[in-house]
Amino acid sequence: TRDRSDTLRTPIVAVLGHVDHGKTSLLDKVRGSAVSEGEAGAITQHIGATAVPLDTISGIAGSLVDPDDFDLPGLLFIDTPGHHSFSTLRSRGGALADIAVLVVDVNDGFQPQTEEAIDILKRTGTPFIVAANKIDTTPGWNPQEGEPIQVTYEAQSDRARSRLDENLYEIIGQLSDAGFSADLYWRVQDFQANVGVVPVSAMTGEGVPDLLTVLMGLSQRYMKDQMTIDVEGPGAGTVLEVKEEKGFGTTLDVVIYDGTLREGDEIVVGGLHEPIVTEVRALLQPKPLAEIRTEKRFDRVDSVGAAAGVKIAAPDLEDAMAGAPVRVVRGRERDVVVADVESELAEIEVDTEEEGVVVKADTLGSLEAMANALLEAEVPILRAEVGDVAPRDVAVASTAAEADNQVILGFNVDVLKNAQRELEESDVRLFSDDVIYQLVEDYEEFVAERQR
Ligand code: GTP
Ligand code: MG
Q1: Ligand 1 close to Cβ of residue 217 (< 6 A)
Q2: Hey, how many other C-beta atoms are within 10 angstroms of the C-beta on 244?
Q3: For 178, 185, 347, 414, which has the most beta carbons within 10 A of its beta carbon?
Q4: 49-53 and 276-279 as β-strands: parallel, antiparallel, unpaired?
Q5: pTM for the predicted model, two decimal places
Q6: CB count, 10 Å around CB of 430?
């Protein structure tokens, strides 16, 4: 018999949704519940991710989860935004998010970033469930701290229950409009054909046992094959963020989804211009919460096995891109690995034309999503790149023949100081937003306005 944790990795769960719908609160609740279950030490805070082991999940889920039914080690949650990177680079079976939780405020229903998340999930084929959050705000609600949804439902007045049901059916309708057949999770038989909706409250913890149970069940049932990895193999991951870190220079926050990454490993990372080949100087994990006030914020670790989040310190990372692949060379030809990274990047390269707008985005994943939205809106792209708006972008945009195209569309990016000056002195218009739909809509309005 195999040692189970040797070959089955933790599924990676991306938590997505509109601003303020409760993504972070939901993760906080999972962490907090673990603390109240006396499992505080079991939860590990990774760079950009939170690992929740199976025992902790079954502690929170109570009778809903019997650990003996599962052999996956737990769940690794990635909070967004900032981490749009998950949508990118699914080639070669390497996908950052194996599964996703779409958080929707039960009162607000679908909002622009919900739609955006749905588009990305659709495009990448990522299975997901919906957490219909904030059920405690239903008028007349009688909260049942940390209880499964069935217990909670039974404690509500008919009136409160039917108010919640109305909101839930609204969301189910919106999912159906978006092309997904959906239902309350306990009515779903086949989670591959239907999206399960789990009513939850990040505030009271109601429904959180159900949410964890459904995620665990889904992963176990449909993703075991994908989770089978050679932990000793060369590590593979995706860059979540490129960050300056005092004392370490430019570092990468990475999620490793395959194999192992070790200090001293030679790695290849997708860069703005070409793949970067470098050597891992240090692997850093955040200190446990209790120690966060000490001088050093990080612990150095020798190695990290999938799935996990880690910060990589290494030379020459300045041009690394969020969303780009990271590959350990170990035991292979360096050139082969470089070619691998190149071809993965080529797959998400955006088709550009002779005439069109300039697009800048913060990650490869968001650039890809932008390009798709523009393609749909029939807006041609002259140039598309990851990074802040630079003087060069203004120069390029000003070469567009049509005034409609003398435009830069920036998603989640800053404008460099000298670019700001050039913008003011040119006819180039900058549109920037952190919601793709909004960006496209603003631009379309501008074009319509001009043609009037
Ligand atoms: P962004 O990271 O900005 O996209 O937001 P988010 O989705 O992470 O939302 P966050 O968790 O920060 O919650 C936003 C607000 O909603 C906070 O004030 C939370 O306290 C509140 N909130 C979240 N979940 C619940 C809930 O279940 N019930 C109630 N009553 N409030 C909630
Ligand atoms: Mg948040």
Answers
A1: no
A2: 9
A3: 185
A4: unpaired
A5: 0.85
A6: 18
